[in-house]
Amino acid sequence: MGTADTELELKVKAAKAASRRMSYLSTDIKNRALNNIAGDLLAKSNDILAANKLDYKAAEESGMNTAMLDRLLLTEERLKSMAQDVMAVAALPDPIGEVIEMRTLPNGLVIGKRRVPLGVIGAIYESRPNVTIDISSLCLKSGNAIILRGGKESIHSNSALSKLVQEAVTRAGMPDGAVQFIEDTDRTLVNRMLKMGSYIDLIVPRGGAGLIKFVKENAVMPVIAGGIGVCHTYIDKSADMDKAVAIALNAKVQRPTVCNALDSLLVHKDIAGNYLPHIAAELAEAGVETHCDEKSLSILKPVSNLKLAPATDDDWGKEFLSLVIAIKVVSSFDEALEHINRYGSGHSEAIVTEDYDSAMRFLNEVDAACVYVNASTRFTDGAQFGLGAELGISTQKMHARGPIGLKEITSYKWIIFGSGQVRP
């Protein structure tokens, strides 16, 4: 067994041992740990930003694309936001020990479910160092031990952040081994980790399609996967013009490099002539390149100062992660639904409409983790949903869907109270 394998083996076993104590820790200890993490993020910001600068410089020199660089970057503001999210998790009710569905059977047995941690959660992620904090805070509050395995592009950032977390939870009285960080960036360790089903109860991949596919195909334990977001907004014929412009613009440009940003804008033909010049002008001012189908191109060509290009087949169903958008004019509500159901990734879809029946049909018939009426898809986020943070955004249907918060990383045990009953 090599040095890297030895590190992995030791840390995974330590996390498993810690998870047994984590399952019955008091809420006070958990919240103390989270408060320590939030405070240390601000107190040690200079050290964290210095480590991040090393990663960012190396990534920039390697030719990393703009979207990935944005995900890698840490700033004072982002650290403050991370600390606020940790405090938000601390303020949430502790899910562990919650008793649900308690009832008395005809034979007198009192039976119900008590919420418990999953045990050990392994996170394999790329680029985003904030994931180190998000996942740690959620796992710690829900009584799970965590094994963190980030990518080499963020090794200095993740190492600094994981050390901060480890020190913060130790001061709070959590067991040694509750938070493990795999320092070795050897890719072969990922496959080894995916085979350790005796120690790891759940794997969460956060990254590109290649990583997620590899983890799903090779893990022997359950996987929560998702995050690939091909997001649509449909502008219905009854849409309010101001809402339709503001929502589409926000969904596209507020932060274009993330999975809940708008990729394809569908516009009903009855409103296209009026709406498209307005939204296209706003998008152009924000630097967005617009890939148009034949109908939308004919409407927008006479408008000056737009960045237009004919759409290709590859533009539909594409997650751009940049200031690029695809626009299609549809002849009916049903055509919009058909397009979304064909090209969507099951992440986030939106309709802008003033028609109640259209709104309800959209909610009922669109198959996605998050379905919006008259709001930006950029809200698909654990913190925005009141979850404090998120382990990821699942586009699966089992066992969790959408932003993964505290309750989604718990299980339950049946608890039964008797008074001497025996089975006849």
Structure description:
By secondary structure, this protein is of the alpha/beta class. It has two domains: 3-224 and 404-417, Aldehyde Dehydrogenase, Chain A, domain 1 (3-Layer(aba) Sandwich), CATH 3.40.605.10; 231-379, Aldehyde Dehydrogenase, Chain A, domain 2. Helices cover 43% and strands 19% of the residues. A seven-stranded parallel β-sheet has the order 10-9-11-8-7-12-13, with helices on both faces. A hairpin with a 7-residue loop joins β14 and β15. The longest helix is centred in the first third of the chain and has 20 residues, at 3-22. The termini are far apart. The model has no long low-confidence stretch (mean pLDDT 95).
Low-confidence stretches: none
CATH superfamily of the largest domain: Aldehyde Dehydrogenase, Chain A, domain 1
CATH topology of the largest domain: Aldehyde Dehydrogenase, Chain A, domain 1
Q: What's the level 1 CATH class of the largest domain?
A: Alpha Beta
Strand content: 15-25%
Instruction: Report the average pLDDT across residues.
Output: 95
Strand elements, count: 16
Major beta sheet, strand line-up: 10-9-11-8-7-12-13
Estimate the global geometry from the Cα principal axes.
globular
